[in-house]
Batch of 3 targets.
Target 1
Amino acid sequence: MKYAVIYYSVDGHIKYLSEILAKNLDADLLPIIKERPYPKKGFFKYFIGGMDATFKRNIVLKQPLPDPSSYDVLVLATPVHAGTLCSPIYSFLKQVDMTNKKVYLIAHSRGGDPKRCLQTIKDTVPSLKVLGESSFIESENLDEQKVVEISQFIKDQK
Ligand SMILES: Cc1cc2nc3c(=O)[nH]c(=O)nc-3n(C[C@H](O)[C@H](O)[C@H](O)COP(=O)(O)O)c2cc1C
């Protein structure tokens, strides 16, 4: 099976999680990169990212984008922005063909409910075959055991 971990990360928490996941799965690690990155701090960091997410803006991403057709299973790891799916992952889903892809979904937040974020992924590509989903809350120490369990769960899928 060929796996890829596709992620978007502003502050590095999801990047770190994705690196461990990719290592455990022997997967390709594929970041989604915004052509013009969000500000790293201050009011506009949250304002611009929050507005993009709220209004489902299809934004410009660095090319080439990962090609989903090259993989059997994709892990999609995304932050929760303004209570919903972040715009870079939303835009990725709109810009590539994800029809019928097998995916495992991961939402990462600072404590907000991940449900709407995960549901937006499923609503954006209704044909996705969702193998499972998990959520993480930002903390100084990543729950690495949970990441190991997710990796094993994915490997156990046929
Ligand atoms: C634009 C923006 C909006 C956010 N909105 C929320 C939110 O609504 N609820 C929440 O719990 N966390 C929110 N966060 C926090 C991120 O979801 C959280 O910090 C996540 O761990 C970020 O992962 P990263 O470090 O890989 O970027 C937001 C962060 C940003 C930058």
Note: The first helix runs from residue 13 to 25.
Target 2
Amino acid sequence: MALTQTREIAAASRLDNVKYAIRDLASVANEIVAQGHKVVPLNIGDPNVFDFRTPPHLIEAVHRAMLDNKNGYAPSPGIKPALDAIRGEAARKGITSVQDVFVTNGVSETVDACLTALLNPGDDLLTPCPDYPLYSALLTKLGIRLNTYYLNEEDGWQPELDDIKKKITPRTRGIVLINPNNPTGAVCTRAMLQQIAEIARQHNLLIFADEIYDKLILDDDEHISMAAVAPDVPVVTFGGLSKNYLVPGWRIGWGIVSGEAATVRNYNEGIQRLLRARLCANHPEQYAIPAALEGPQDHLVEVRKKLRSRRDLPLSGAIRRRVSVVFRRAARSTRIPASIFQKAMMCL
Ligand SMILES: Cc1ncc(COP(=O)(O)O)c(C=O)c1O
């Protein structure tokens, strides 16, 4: 008689608290759509869903790579033309103490590799609040206690330095700085970056500078790279094609390791070991990196213009009033306070 396995296969308990609000929300929305309601999906930062088109020269570069049979495995850190282009980008960003660069399947994989390579059980990492939920999800997966610092609404959502200082423990290994910030859109001033760098120096911390939105600044702020103002401090700068170059589905990101060579050598070797274990990042798509970083940047003008007008629309009086009516109605039907809906909107 054939045996049937009936015992449920349980997911590992360390995943119990792994949440990713932006996508978890989508399953709730699907249920509402199934009930016949119309839902406008504002939760996922996918420009291609909102009528943005990938610059054609990127598509041509990847198409050519595929026709040239660049369809096998790539070197684990990335292909040379991509690595050279990322080094060129680091120089344009003013990062002078580059020790290594590597390519990943999206910045999401850069973050995964960099956090995994750094943190031991009992360590902690300072992450911003409100946060981009990838960080808390990965920390939870790694069994690392969350240690968040506040972004101060009264100060244009700049990091609250006193809170950072207060939260540092003997086991704090680093600080995550998302600049320009998701979800607030704030851009750090040079003075702010210098003060965070000083805290890192005093406490031997590594800084993760998530700069995935560095070319999508909508106002007059200048983007300054953390690694450029603090060449001596160990920094991993995260960048990628998803947002600036309108290809989130290609899953292309990178890391730029900078600081004193002797300080970052061992940690960088840890990252490289993880990159070798996962073989390589998407291969033909890596050919879009030099095309993107060294080619025409014209699309960015149009993208910023469109984003600016879409950002301004919900801030206008009439729309604000309508949104707050929707929040109140949602609050009534779910018995969840309207302020929670407001906060949830901000985190998207
Ligand atoms: C701040 C931030 N970091 C990282 C990512 C992940 O980007 P990727 O598509 O390159 O994995 C996102 C995506 O929305 C983001 O907003």
Note: The two ends are 53 Å apart (CA to CA).
Target 3
Amino acid sequence: MHYNSVVEFERLQNSPSYQALLEEKLNRDRQKELEEKQIHEAREREWLRAEKEAQKVFLELQQKLALAKEERARQNEKIRLEWEEEQKRREELRQQKENELQEQLRQQELSKAKVEDFIEYGGDTPDHLKTTLETNPNKPPCPFFSKTATCRFFDVCSRNHVRPGISKILLIPNFFSHYSLEKTESDRFADAGLEFERHEIKTCYDEFFYDVVPELETFGELGLFVTCCNKESHLRGNVFIEFHSTQAALKCYRGLNGRWYAGRQISVQFVNIPSWNSAVCGVHFSNRCPKGSSCNFLHTFRNPGNSFSVYNKMKKDTEQRQRNHLESRNWRWSESPETSPKEDDWEVDAPRSSRSRVKNGSKRKRRSHSRESERRSRSSRHKKDERRKRKRRDT
Ligand SMILES: [Zn+2]
Ligand SMILES: [Zn+2]
């Protein structure tokens, strides 16, 4: 049986159909192997391509990163340079300001030294003080400020206020204070103790005068001491001080500005009063000022003993003006020259009003007036004669 099986097996093995089957299987295996090899190679190629692609992308990315890094570095460098430039500019600016400040301080020191020299030894007024300060240089001058160095609108006035850098006259605003100066007109009428109040304010003013004037005299020779009794806030208690020299005024300014008096800090200003006659209300002392306490011209206290009185000064100025006026006339007929008013014609209480002076001068004035008109008519007659003569000569 076993032998038969082996023989059968060999017979089957050697049979052509088996051999053909074997051959077919071998071919199939070879084909499969080839296909597998081709697939593997294709995969290999695909992988290589993908790898190459990836390498390319990676390289591009690397390049981009490198470029970005470079750009960032460039930007940082630019910012650094700009910052350095800015720092340099700031430093230069700081240095420039520092230099300017130093120069300013040097100039200030120089000016201060010049002022000290001027106060100590006199001589020419330092140049830097010969300036004027203007509030509205392009506007017309304020008529009140030009006359009284004060204005109800203070420095917000729409007109121009011109202040000198230095002068002989100083103004200390609201220096003298008294409760009655703060009162309104209606308060005054309601107050029964008017006479007492008048006496009280006079006593108070005299005390103020005797307290302040000796101090002012330590700075130099005092010319005028004028205190306003107006109630308007821009004039109330204002004190004008005129010295004989700008040197003394400057000394006083240096000594008083910023000092304290009666619990208040005082400020001193250089002012220009072209004419006291134009600044002081001419009818206040005769109690005939129609504007009363709201008058914009100076209503002043009478100084004890008329010392440093503005009225004496105004009187002298008026007399001088009259003298100049007379001297400037060229009368042909001069046998009766006009005379200036006599001493007793002048009332300190009514200094400037021409009306009151004519009244006070009464007969003498009227006489003088008639003499003057006579002289005028004579003069005009004389001129007519002259003209007639000339006409005749010409023909
Ligand atoms: Zn004004
Ligand atoms: Zn007045």
Note: The CA atoms of residues 72 and 78 lie 10 Å apart.
